[in-house]
Amino acid sequence: MFISNQPQFTFEFDDGALLLEDIGDEGCMSLTNGMELALKKLIVDWGYGDRIKRDTVIVYRDSTGNWDGVNYNGPERLVGFYYLGAKSAEEAVRLAISKKSGGGS
Fold this sequence. Notes:
- Helix content is 22%, strand content 27%.
- By secondary structure, it is an alpha+beta fold.
- The protein has a five-stranded mixed sheet.
């Protein structure tokens, strides 16, 4: 079986938050495993660097349908993940904003 070394994903910006969804199949790298590649593609290749900063709220839907958060630490650092366990993009953004503002654990 051929396995792609790139994640397959969709994205949108919603009120300044970046929402990413894994749309790959079994032959693709998951968005979770390829988050750094996905962000690099958005920032460098597709020119969204002005919209993706360290304080940008970034949430993603993984291949199992769960929404969690991403800490983007700049181009020279690794990304970090944090649990949200949200079932919708709207809930994920709300929870991520709360965590970033110190309202969540």
